[in-house]
Design goal:
single chain, 5 helices, rod-shaped, transmembrane helix
Length: 157
């Protein structure tokens, strides 16, 4: 098999990761309308960019033998290049996972700290002003408020 065939086979997991990342980006962008954190969108965008760069690097690395044979780069220089590229990929991956973790923690905290949440259906609620109190053991029923008693007008003093 040729080096190009091997590189193509090695990119199959990256292409699958690209498809999953694209799906995640679409879902997180749609979730922004429902209040999902923008950190999740940023995390998926970084994941997608890193995956695309990894696919490009797979095919660019096919020229490594040419780099060393041309005499322009030594083996140590090529190792430094691989180290630098690997560090960029690892830092981008770490950043995207960190953004996901922050978004998850942030979404869990905001839902617990919301004020004025509605109790589950059928859960007895306290009586609102103008409504009679609910009887224990019965689900609250919708009733019309009773108007306040009319007071006769007071003569001016």
């Amino acid at each position: 098999m040729s080096p190009l065939s091997f590189a193509s086979i090695e990119t199959i997991p990256l292409v699958l990761q690209l498809a999953v990342g694209l799906l995640g980006l679409i879902v997180s962008v749609k979730g922004r309308a429902r209040g999902v954190s923008g950190l999740m969108v940023a995390a998926f965008a970084i994941m997608l960019a890193t995956t695309v760069m990894a696919i490009v690097w797979q095919f660019l690395a096919l020229n490594v033998p040419d780099w060393s044979e041309s005499g322009n780069l030594s083996i140590e220089s090529i190792r430094w290049i691989y180290l630098a590229v690997g560090m960029v990929f690892d830092i981008a991956s770490l950043l995207s996972w960190l953004l996901v973790a922050i978004a998850v923690v942030k979404s869990g905290r905001s839902s617990r700290q919301q004020q004025g949440f509605a109790p589950p259906a059928g859960y007895p609620m306290t009586a609102q002003p103008g409504y009679p109190p609910a009887q224990p053991g019965y689900a609250p029923q919708v009733q019309q408020p009773t108007p306040p008693a009319q007071q006769p007008p007071q003569p001016p003093s």
